[in-house]
Amino acid sequence: MIDQTEPILKCENLTKKFQTRNGEIGIFKDVSFSVNKGEIAIIKGRSGAGKSTLLWILGGIDRANSGKIIFEGRPLDEMNNQELSVMRRKKMGIIFQNFNLIPSWTAFENVETALIHSGMSKKDRSKKVYSLLNEFELSNQVDNLPSELSIGQQQRVAIARAIANEPLLIIADEPTGELDLETAKEIITHLTRLVRDKSVALIIATHGTYPLGFADRVFQLSNGMLSSVTEKDKQL
Predict the structure, then answer these.
(1) Is 178 exposed, middle or buried (0-12, 13-18, 19+ CB in 10 A)?
(2) Which of 10, 109, 204, 219 could form a disulfide with 105 if both were Cys (CB 3.0 to 4.6 A apart)?
(3) CA-CA distances (angstroms) from residue 42 to 34, 51, 206, 211, 227?
(4) From CA 110, how far away is CA 107, in angstroms rounded?
(5) Distance CA 99, CA 32 (A)
(6) For the segment 163-212, what is each residue's pLDDT rounded down to a tens digit?
(7) pTM higher than 0.85 for the full model?
(8) What is the pLDDT of residues 122-153, one digit of tens each?
(9) What is 39-49+86-234's CATH superfamily?
(10) Residue 23 burial (CB < 10 Å; 0-12/13-18/19+)?
(11) Which sign, positive or negative, has the C-alpha torsion 89, 80, 226, 201?
């Protein structure tokens, strides 16, 4: 059972660096923050600041060089790759910046893939997938391949896939970065409603296209350091 008094995810003193032929490159250092159920946390910063790298580490896709991440009370560094995969599949929803849809699969199949290992019957899976696609106004595109969808439609398929398993935490990399203003507003409204209604935690990385006023907490990643953003600075 989840301890309601504890953050659903907490990271402490994360440091990430890469070794190249020309020496060591530091991405970020001593990053610490947490997010609770029902909260939206935004990590903003310029392109190349390390936001995506930080998200993949939070999701157990990549590893930090030092520091600790605790998800649902358990340190990720105590999990092997298989355990991390199961954790992501059952308890996290990840929205990739480039969508990561499988090009040879239809919109329906791309969303259904999140439920294959859920234990649901094929009939129940189909019912849920159709419901999600309808919710995102994609009921007429269920049999379309990603190449037959607009950018906005591809993003909605990716989000439907990410929330299909009713995750505890959603990690989103620039979820509105490639969208027109109207579609972006619809995506923001849907994600915000999901967080508030289902007590899901949401962490978003953005270079500025996601309105900060929707967030409970905003952080700035700059020059390898993460800092809190004040209410005044949210409006800038």
Answers:
(1) middle
(2) 109
(3) 11, 10, 7, 9, 11
(4) 5
(5) 27
(6) 999 999 999 998 887 777 788 888 888 888 888 888 999 999 988 666 77
(7) yes
(8) 999 999 999 999 989 999 999 999 999 998 89
(9) P-loop containing nucleotide triphosphate hydrolases (3.40.50.300)
(10) exposed
(11) positive
Host H or E run for residue 131: helix 122-135
Higher pLDDT pick, 230 / 8? 8
What's the one-letter identity of residue 166? E
Task: Give the residue extent of every domain in the chain.
Answer: 39-49+86-234
**Virtual CA dihedral for 177, 178, 179, 181, nearest 10 degrees?**
50
Q: Got the DSSP string for 136-180?
A: TT-TT-TT--GGGS-HHHHHHHHHHHHHTT--SEEEEESTTTTS-
Distance (Å) of CA 9 to CA 69, 93, 164, 177, 180: 7, 14, 20, 25, 31
Mean pLDDT of the residues in the chain: 89
What the block records as the tokens of 103 is 């090009």
β-pairing, 74-75 vs 92-95, is unpaired
Provide the token pair at 120.
Answer: 């649901």
